[in-house]
Amino acid sequence: MATDEVDRSPSERVDVCVVGAGPAGALAAYSLAERGHDVVILEAGPRFSFEDRLRRMEYSLRPAHDGLEVWEMGGDRDAYASTGPLDYPLNDVRVKGVGGTTLHWLGYVPRYHEKDFEMDSRYGLGEDWPISYDDLRPYYAAVERELGVAGVEDNPFEPPRESPFPMDGFSPSHSDSLLVEACEELDITVHSIPQARNSERYDDRSPCVGYGTCIPVCPSGAKYSADVHVAKAEAEGARVIDRAPVQRLEHDASTERLEAVEYATPDGETHRQEARQVVLACGAIETPRVLLLSESDEYPDGLANSSGAVGRYLMDHPLVMAFGIASESTRQHHVGFSTSGTHQFYDHEEPTPGSFHVGFLNYAGPSPVEAALSSGDWGDSLVSDVSTEVTGHIGTEALVEQLPREENRVTLDTSQTDDHGNPVPEVHWSVGDHAIETAEAALEVQHDILETMGARVTWSTDPRRPASGSHPMGTTRMGADPETSVVDARLRTHDLENLTIASSSVFTTGGAMNPTLTIGALSLMAAEYIDEDL
């Protein structure tokens, strides 16, 4: 089998083997390598050249190409099944490669609120996390410095902070100012959105130069991606093996510790990487899949699954949007990210509706050619129509809280296999009544804002069929009780004493905030515990 010249043979037994080179794995690996530990990172996908990003951006703009092609997703390697009442677009959610999903993410990094850790105590919903917001506060501050977060301390609803943002925030757009006027009439407080995107040069990375293609690729490197910390881990002595999908985890004779991580390479070989500690950091879909694939006589239901919770309680953030045409020009250009929104509806007294936050989309609308082709008019009438349709676009979005539900889960689909003959992940996702009621409340707020500013609402999401916010969470959840959870408060599995899971899969509940900052904070916390063990 043809391959490249990269040495992908295993190292001698290392201190830590990290599975996954996305934000969780990269931050954990860097933190441990910086402390002097011998670290190997195994990544299923390839390394992508930074110099190639401009070509990938241009590729993404051409209508002949599928968005998945930008980061080379698809085919047998990435096969999956979606069997729930709503299609779950898994390959739109993830990227396999050094940098992981942060290669194509949007870059919003709010902190979770205090209530997100206390859903059962406050509302009798879901479960409480075994840790609190205060436990994560120092790690939130640390990960903001590591990623480089641009923000303004103008959000009266956010939880308490201990230090300023590392960079000044981005200025609001002109369309934001139009929406702010409407919000003032409705007594809605608007504030900035923190971004893992450089507003100035930071950490030897460029400031944002306005390509506007944040999803799916930032050619300048201003938007943070986890390959930054993979490189930092390598500079501290860590070794990265790319194109090395993990096949299974092997436990020792005691059944209480992992002994090795088995991985495949492009030459058709299979290797065993032995390690004293293992960090599983490959996202909320692949993490339970690896555990389920690692069944043995002693663990017939998969590793770390004595509770039966591996793969269960899959959550995402249902996404609902509302678009309209304003009566005046919004002077809109495709910015690529939102600059303002509101968390006013996040903390709430009653259990339902739940939390949601609204963002103002810097949406440019269709091109003049598209607008002209869709209009049935000619002459001056066409000019008037196109002018309005092109310059007046306005839009809002909201992420919605979804409760953990046992039936929402990741299992193995044995009817189809990946390129190494393993069953593919089967994803079952539905939203539930709590999320639907919350989505209806979010859409009501969005419609009120657009109509108050004089916009004509042209389309909005069906709250019973929301899009996925591309934030899978909860499939190896954290908890104090080994009978109902997979990992403990330090993210170590209840069943295996040297296996730590650093991923959104450990979230006990999902809140309605973008999860990456919390993923990073948890990863830094977990690395400290592993350092103590070593």
From TrEMBL:
InterPro entries: 4Fe4S_Fe-S-bd, FAD-dep_OxRdtase, FAD/NAD-bd_sf, GMC_OxRdtase_N, GMC_OxRtase_C, MIP_CS, P2Ox-like
Chain segments carrying region Disordered: 459-481
Oxidoreductase listed as a keyword: yes
Domain (4Fe-4S ferredoxin-type): residue spans on this chain: 198-228
Protein name according to UniProt: GMC family oxidoreductase
Family: Belongs to the GMC oxidoreductase family.
Short name of any one Pfam family annotated for the protein: DAO
Organism from which the protein derives: Natronoglomus mannanivorans
Cofactor needs: FAD
Keywords: FAD, Flavoprotein, Oxidoreductase
Domain of life: Archaea
